[in-house]
Amino acid sequence: MTTSIEETLVLVKPDGVARNLTGEILRRIEAKGYSLVDIRLLQADRELLAKHYAEHEGKPFYEPLVEFMESGPVVAMRVAGNRVIEGFRVLAGTTDPTTAAPGTIRGDFGRDWGLRVQQNLVHGSDSVESAERELSLWFG
Ligand code: IDP
């Protein structure tokens, strides 16, 4: 057993907000035992999204990803808990909603629309370094 109290950035992407899944996603986070520390609903602008997704610049899905993320409001959450960075990514499921395991957020609710970008409902930071960088971008 490892003790590592962490904070992570969770985003409910525009598809999740539009489909009224914010409450269900937060319910799963809280049911798992993680704590909500801060939350905001906002319309992300391109400048914020370019910083958030800097590692993907130049990839074929980058432009459709940024367009999708600015297409409507998102919910940003600061979530705390032991090993929450890895733990939330397990709750979310793998990137592709078609193959994400049932029981995960993406596996249960993600739909493969056949679009240029996977609209997979949520984002979760993937490392301690990413979490620190992303939390300061979204929460200052
Ligand atoms: P993650 O969100 O599961 O960590 P990343 O590789 O960080 O996945 O990619 C960021 C986001 O870009 C994904 O959540 C998804 O919306 C989109 N994406 C990633 N790879 C692809 C792809 O191959 N095709 C379409 N969209 C993708």
Automatic annotation (TrEMBL):
Q: What is its EC number?
A: 2.7.4.6
The Nucleoside diphosphate kinase-like domain covers 5-140
Q: Which residues bind ATP?
A: K13, F61, R89, T95, R106, N120
Q: Name one GO biological process term.
A: UTP biosynthetic process
Which keywords label this protein? ATP-binding, Kinase, Magnesium, Metal-binding, Nucleotide metabolism, Nucleotide-binding, Transferase
Which region is the signal sequence?
Answer: none
Q: Where is the active site?
A: H123
What reaction does this catalyse?
a 2'-deoxyribonucleoside 5'-diphosphate + ATP = a 2'-deoxyribonucleoside 5'-triphosphate + ADP
Pfam families linked: NDK
Extract the GO molecular function terms from the UniProt entry. ATP binding; metal ion binding; nucleoside diphosphate kinase activity
Q: Which InterPro entries match?
A: NDK-like_dom (IPR034907), NDK-like_dom_sf (IPR036850), Nucleoside_diP_kinase (IPR001564), Nucleoside_diP_kinase_AS (IPR023005)
Cite the PROSITE patterns for this sequence: NDPK, NDPK_LIKE
Cofactor(s) needed, names only, are: Mg(2+)
- Report the sequence similarity comment from the record: Belongs to the NDK family.
| Protein name, entry field | Nucleoside diphosphate kinase
Q: To which species is this protein native?
A: Agromyces tardus
